[in-house]
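pasting for ref
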Amino acid sequence: MYILVYCLISLGKYGFPINSRELRHIIKNYLNRCGRVVKIFQNNLPGQDWIKAFIARHPEISVRFAENVKHTRAAVDESMLRSSFENLAIELKDVPPTNLWNFDETNATDDPGKKKVLVKKGSKYPELIRNASKTSVSVMFCGNAAGELLPPYVVYRATKMWTTWTENSPKGSRYNVSASGWFDANIFTD
């Protein structure tokens, strides 16, 4: 197997796949460092046709959409989840559903979290490990095991709240702003 193919497969396997643009620039940098000039490449940069031909020559590589996943979530495995749920079942044995509340913050960004990357053919769920995203709006949802829901709490990434952001919202909804667009200690206690 060519070293380049091996590296592409390894990067994808460990959550750091590269896209075709990045591969083209890796090739360009390699050629420049070696002092080689490939006349069919413009400024030593392979084109999209070269990428297509490369993938055709190496059927073990395919182009797939990868989804962003934070490094902390990537570290969770099945045994950790099973252990957590077993412990939870013991702790909640005699607690009524109306007393079991859970809240979760979800975040919407202007980054759809999908990017075409080069990975080993047959990879079912290519993931791209990221620690940050772009502009965001966070929403806190809270409900209990009996099916009751509290109104949502929305946090915008901004310094000023615009009244139009609160129009037509569910009754009792709360709104706030933060520099990050995430809930912080002050907002959480609000």
